[in-house]
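Pilot study result, target chain (109 residues):
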Amino acid sequence: MESYLAADIDPVLLLEVEGGKRLFDTNCSPCHDMTSVVVGPPLAGIIERRDSAWVYSFIKNSQKMVEAGDSTAVQLYNEFSKMQMPAFDFTDEQIDSIVSYISLYPNRP
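Predicted structure:
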């Protein structure tokens, strides 16, 4: 696992984080970085900036939130050149693991 993780991290959390890293690398990293803009916004500290229910809904179907008029979703959509984030058919447990991975990232934007 990445060197920034503490050596004494709980083994169950470590497995969750490793799974989250794999999902992030495969599905999120083409458009997102932790601290800089790629196609979409940086994700380090996302849980501190947004309610977790909002984050889960956005990951599952950001365009649905935009169409429903969610002000934050609309603002992000407009800010990032109206680039539509794909909808993901992740389970809540998979999103938990992605969020756990992102939450352990040391450098907040």
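One observation from the pilot: Residues 11-28 form the longest helix (18 residues). A full batch analysis is planned for the follow-on phase.
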